């Protein structure tokens, strides 16, 4: 089946649930090193509370790069 849009440059992989990040090749890129923000939140303070761990991780990364 044809799928429009960009495709990852790595092969698909499967793991038994629950999977482990350390067994993935390549390792996941959460944007900590690769994402570049616009600087709009430079010198701002963020308080992240009462949410799921993945949202906390994303907010923390975005706070550090904006």
Which class of secondary structure composition applies to the elements? mainly alpha
Give unreliable regions as ranges.
none
Distance between the termini: 38 Å
Helix % is: 10-25%
* Contiguous helical run count: 1
Rough outline:
extended
- How large is the radius of gyration? 16 Å
Q: What is the N-to-C order of secondary-structure elements (H for helix, E for strand)?
A: H
Largest sheet: none
Strand content: under 5%
Mean pLDDT: 76
- Report the count of strand segments: 0
Structural write-up:
It is a single chain. This protein is mainly alpha-helical and 66 residues long. It has a domain at 36-66. Helices cover 20% and strands 0% of the residues. It contains one helix and no strands. The chain has one helix at residues 53-65. The protein starts with 52 loop residues before the first helix and ends with a helix. The model has no long low-confidence stretch (mean pLDDT 76).
Short recap of the structure:
Helices cover 20% and strands 0% of the residues. It is mainly alpha-helical. The protein has one helix spanning 53-65.
Key features?
mainly alpha; extended; 66 residues
Strand and helix map with partners:
Layout: H1 53-65
